[in-house]
Here is the input.
Amino acid sequence: MNTTLSVLNAAAVGIFGTIFSAALCNIHWERSKTRTLLQGMFLLALIQIVIFLLLGTDMVEKLYPLIMHLPLFLLLTHLSGQRLWSLLAVLIAYLCCQLRRWIALLVTAAFSNSDLMQIVVELVITLPLLLLLLRYVAPAVRELSGYKRSMQLQFGLVPAICYLFDYLTTVYTDWLILDYPVAKEFMFFVCAGSYLVFVMRSTSDLRRQSELEQSQAVLDLQVKQATRQLQEMQKSQQLAAVYRHDLHHHLQCLASYLDSGEIQQARDYINSLHQDLTSQTVRRYCENTTINLLLSVYAERANKANIPWDVQVRVADVSLPVADSDLCVLLSNAMENALNACTDCLAAGEPAHVQISGYEKNGKLFFQITNSYTGRITFQDDLPSTTQPGHGMGVRSIRAIVEKYHGLCSFSAADGLFTLRCSI
Here is the structure.
């Protein structure tokens, strides 16, 4: 009776481990692959039965890594094409097989200290436990198969250690049964070490997530501000268009003043029109409205600060691959940084200028901004770094927007000139 149940339990363990390890792999299950897996399971079971009949239970247990785990690893590698993850899937499935054994030990210890009862409980809980793992655990673990190798290795470290420890201390030696202190305390050491690594990595991830959330909050604020600024500039341009459209009305009014000899009123009217039109003037750098508005605003600021402002931009009035709000944040940050650097140059008594070039080609936007700078610029992670509080968000916003549209950007500084290049 016990022998029959033991054989059934061994078969249940093999089926449990094979199905769960296959579920952990990222395999597109076609009929041919399902058939290959079933044939592999049958062949592995046949090999174990032959060795059991010829050499006995102890030899099957000692050879189990060679007659079960190694062929299963090769089979999953063939089906999934992922060698490392197939190995980790076998190790994780082996670790999860211990769940059914531990639950059976707990039930046996609570009700009856019987080997027969332990085997029966293991058989009873095999299917429910497998269904739970397939439903809730396998999909989450399977996502890790797409992560980089270093992450996969970290995830598989504990299952690998548990696998080696179990075979070394219970199958190939009696260290755990003989109560060796090193063997007895080793798993506590593994748990403690895994916990500390988990805490350190989680802390690092949380810190990085907090920084990303702060950067995202600042970027969202900049987008809102840029959108409002863009709307105000568009209203200004529309108002200027209205003035030009109503020019003949203004001329008629001026003519009436002159005809009636009211020279001073005519002068006041002309001055009023001049001030209104000057405040609404938008210089035309290219055919794109958004870029024109942005360049005009910062050109006016550069003119007031006596900073030479050279613009060579060729962008047609076409749909750009970047939203107007993001383009506004990107260019505003870039030109703001350029003006600030030039202002520092003038304060230090050094010459300053800004050069902007850009063009659109085949649905991509390219531009380069070069400006004078004074002092020394250091770089960290390919970004210009600063120790001043509240600074440095501009370049991070620029890179975030460029990466959002899968573009490229670079920052460089040499011979007193700082250059930003972007391709979106």
In short: The mean pLDDT is 82. The CA atoms of residues 21 and 406 lie 36 Å apart. DSSP finds twelve helices and seven strands in the chain.
